[in-house]
Structures are given as structure tokens and as C-alpha cells.
């Protein structure tokens, strides 16, 4: 990788680290610094092409107009989210023509998040606590589910990138197993479900009839795991009890969703719903726990247009590369359960994989180890 691209990639990794730390500690200065790091990366490796200045100007004008016109979203949070979304757009066009930066950035983000979970695990052991309980104490700006969510998002993009370009993933099986393990350790419903979906997407080709021995091994492992859980029912009960699976669909997220949709009319559809006036969302620090509701509250009809483009692009990928579709579907699906994307720390890579031409599609192959 050329030196400038390496430096820019390192700065983007630092941007992600600083952002996560800033959110975890509820430190506004660190969050602002993360946006500055992203902007520095764009300066070092600016978008290519004759229209790059038009792109930068359009993003800046769009950001300013949204801040001036939006009256349905808390101002301070709106300014941050607009800047955050703007740098994601610029980073997308910056890295899309320098695709070797993408796996480097994602690899080190995955390593950093896994390292954080491992450190917290050993500290929680020393304190005779569950890791999720310990992380719930030390995390001020978000819950432990957010950490498993970020790990899932970075990993799904990592696999989607390799799948789209028909490239093998080094240590892919190890990464998948660790993700599932960590998500179970963190006891989040969404983390457990989506990590299993990610594993299904990765191992789908192993269940093909031509891989009879693999199918046999997977069945044997499944039987052994089922027997172990059956013998140790307390383990299963503990997961269900502490991960809130017992609540089923009766959760505040459903109430928030109903409140938001009941507030829609022509004006709010076009301009966005004022979430500060919705009692359930307001009681959760004005957090709708749904990236798409949050996105629409900020941008109104423009958010619906962008989401429509995302769905149409996903529909196209479905018929071209089903493997990449599954990985990207995990990314999109996770956004329904938290305000973790749109804007999100990895959105620029998601947009680059989904919308830009990283490479011509080839005949899809399974994402496998070297």
C-alpha cells in the first residue's frame, strides 16, 4: 500500500477508535476529535475525479441547509450527526478508488473491538462478575449491546468486501467463531441472533451436497452442543434470562416504533418527526433505538429516498451475489435495533461496497480461508 494511503488508513482506524471511546465515555470532545480525524484523512487522500470539488461543495451545502431547516431534532445532536454523515460520504468516495484501504481499516477495527472485549472479560473474571454486567457499569454513553453491534457491523463489511471481490478471508472461520462466542458472552438478543445469521452466511457453502464430510461434522457438532445444553439447562436459562429473550417482542422498541408511526402525517413524513415530543423515546435520552427512525427524524423525505436507494441496491446484489447480500443484510438488519448506522462509524465502507464500483463482479465464490 502506498505510504499516503497507509497513513490515511491508520488515521481512519484512529477515527473509529476515538469515536467508540468517546461514545463509551460520553465525552463530547473525543467525539468531535473523531470527526476531525476523519476530515484529516479526506484531506490526505481526497476523492478522485473531476467532480470531487462539486461533491465536497454539495455535501457542505447539504449539511448547512439541513442544520438551518430542521426543527424537529435536538440542535446539538443534529449538528454532530450531520457532520458525521458528511464525513462518511466524503470518506466513501475517498476509499472507493483506493480499495486496498478497506480490509486494512476493518481488520484493525475488528482486532480493537475484540481486544476490548477480551480485556473486559479478564477484568470481570477478577471481579467475579459477568462480562456484560461489568461492561454495563463502565460504559456511560451506550450499552454493552453496542459493542457487540459494532463488532458485527465491522465483521459483516469485512466479509462482504471479500465476497464481492471474490477474495479469500484469512482466518475467516476463527473470526466467525469468536464473533458468535463474544456475542453470547455479552448476552444481547440482537447480537446473538445476528451473529448466528452471519455464521450461517459464512458457512452456507459448507452445507452443499458435495461437501458430505463437512455436513456430517456439522451435524455431529450440533448434536453434541444440543446434548451439552440439554445436560446443562441452567446455561440456557441464564442466557434467556439475562439476554431478555424472555421479553419476546414486548419491549420499549416496539412502543417507540408505534409512537413514531402514529405521529406521521404529510408534514412529518416530509420534514421528520419531532422525537423530543414522543414520550417513550424522550424517556430514553431521545434515542429511538432504531437507526431508520433516527435517520428519518433528521432528514425527512430525503432519508426515505436514501433508504430506497439502499434497498434497490440490495435487491440488485441479491441476484448477483447471494453471499454478499447476506452479509450486507446483517448490517442493515442490525440498524433496526439500535441507532448504530445512518450515521454510523462504518457507514462509509458500507456505502463504498454497496454503491461504488470497487471491482467488476465475477462468478461468486464462497468466502473461505486461504
From TrEMBL:
Transmembrane segments: 6-22, 29-47, 53-71, 78-96, 102-123, 144-163, 175-203, 215-237, 293-312, 340-360
Keywords: Membrane, Transmembrane, Transmembrane helix
UniProt key word rRNA-binding: no
Entry protein name: Uncharacterized protein
Native organism: Erwinia pyri
Taxonomic classification: Bacteria, Pseudomonadati, Pseudomonadota, Gammaproteobacteria, Enterobacterales
